[in-house]
Design goal:
Strand content: 15-25%
Largest sheet: 8 strands, mixed
Radius of gyration: 22 Å
Distance between the termini: 52 Å
Order of helices and strands: HEHEEHHEHEHEEHEEEEEHEEEEHEEEHH
Number of helices: 11
Strand order of the largest sheet: 5-6-4-14-15-16-13-17
Number of domains: 2
Number of strands: 19
Structural class: alpha/beta
Bound molecules: pyrrole-2-carboxylate
Length: 412
């Protein structure tokens, strides 16, 4: 045992140093970011580190990471369908690959490979399509046979017993899982160290706009004058945008997920089955982390429902019958802001100084580093980076949509 470890072990129990500080709420900030999730905190971090803009407040109505950042199933991948989406998520994966050393914080990114199973002729065609578009963009992604699936996942049933037997899969080796809380905490700590103010329990109650320009944000703790506001919320993005008079083409749907009791490690890839409506991975703690599609109705409820758990379990057991006796441990829901084309809305809005990084549907966590970096660039330079230009708000008026529904983990 090293001397330092021994010294720490013998030291009287001291509470760990806080990872970010509390500050009084100032009555002015250069930039106000609404939403203390991975996107908002990443934007604050890149504003401070890359652009030297540190007079920044991140406002979070509960605690940081309490929204979609802490409620997703932590899957990362870049095997999308559109060239715009693939380039964008590929930059995110590259940033994630380096994030632990950049933040000096272990975010536990495990690039264990990602398998999207195909059970029908039409999904085989879509997988082939995705593989080809991915390869053109230099993203490692290929269609593999059921025998290769079995080699990667010995416990999966590749026989013709399941209701929809496995016909092949899209294999994406760079995909994997990450510790989502660590990403939030790592960005928060690094942003705080650069002077960003993180305000938890600070709810936005209004946005003041004068002559079509943002001038202030109203909160439950007071008014903040500012010329730049970024809406980086998930679940509430259309309500926040409405405060500035901006209407978003977004419908909010709950997405449920759950984990089982811990098991010995047996699964070291991420498994997705669109036909059976589930995705599954095993966490470092041994729990199986599972989810399915969004609820079939718009709602702000984060209730977990028995029929979801029942259906999910039935579908997982089709391909993993040996899990029949495994018990569920936790079950929760998060809120997903769905856009008509399943792509996000990033950039400026018709209101000067009011920017958005919203509408992430079920893809948001994967994009936190790249959207943070590129939104920070937009705020700092007043120029929209090429990588995010296709996701502009006005595409819904010009008709230049970026249809990414075909790359959804499961059909929504
Ligand atoms: O797009 O990979 C995905 C995903 C998994 C869970 C929700 N979305």
């Amino acid at each position: 045992m090293s001397f330092t470890l021994l010294k720490r072990g013998l030291r009287p129990n001291r509470p760990p140093a806080p990872m970010w500080r509390e500050h009084p709420l100032q009555d002015h900030y250069d930039v106000v970011i609404i939403g203390g999730g991975a996107h908002g905190l990443a934007t604050a971090y890149y504003l401070a580190t890359v652009h030297g803009i540190t007079d920044v407040a991140v406002l979070e109505k509960r605690y940081i990471g309490s929204g979609a950042s802490g409620r997703n199933t932590a899957i990362l991948r870049s095997n999308y369908l559109t060239p715009e989406g693939i380039l964008f998520y590929d930059e995110s994966i590259k940033l994630y690959e380096n994030l632990a050393s950049e933040l000096d914080f272990n975010v536990m990114f495990s690039q264990r490979g990602h398998l999207t199973l195909a059970h029908t002729d039409s999904s085989m065609r879509t997988m082939q399509w995705r593989a080809e578009v991915n390869q053109i963009q230099n993203v490692d992604s290929r269609v593999i046979s059921p025998a290769e699936v079995k080699k990667l996942v010995p416990f999966i049933d590749t026989s013709d017993r399941p209701r929809y037997p496995i016909m092949g899969a899209l294999y994406h080796p760079p995909g994997g899982v990450i510790r989502h809380d660590a990403v939030v905490w790592g960005y928060a700590r690094a942003a705080d160290a650069k002077g960003v103010h993180i305000h938890q329990q600070t709810e936005v109650t209004g946005i003041d706009v004068e002559h079509n320009r943002v001038v202030a944000v109203q909160t439950n703790r007071g008014r903040i004058a500012t010329g730049t506001v970024l809406n980086a919320t998930a679940g509430w993005c259309s309500l926040i945008a409405a405060m500035a008079g901006v209407r978003l083409p977004v419908e909010t749907r709950p997405l449920q997920a759950c984990v089982t009791e811990p098991l010995k490690p047996f699964l070291d890839t991420v498994i997705v089955s669109g036909t059976f409506h589930f995705y599954l991975s095993q966490s470092d703690r041994g729990e199986l982390v599972m989810g399915a599609s969004v609820n079939p109705f718009a709602s702000y409820s984060t209730d977990a429902t028995l029929d979801f758990a029942e259906a999910l379990a039935g579908h997982v057991l089709e391909l993993f019958p040996s899990l029949a006796k495994v018990r569920l441990l936790r079950h929760w829901a998060g809120l997903c802001d769905m856009t008509p084309d399943f792509s996000p809305i990033m950039g400026t809005t018709p209101v000067d100084g009011f920017l958005v990084d919203v509408g992430w549907g079920t893809y948001g966590f994967k994009a936190a580093p790249v959207s943070g970096k590129r939104m920070a660039e937009l705020i700092a330079t007043n120029r929209t980076p090429e990588l995010i230009a296709p996701f502009a708000y006005d595409r819904f008026f010009t008709g230049q949509i970026v249809g990414e529904k075909g790359a959804a983990a499961v059909t929504n």
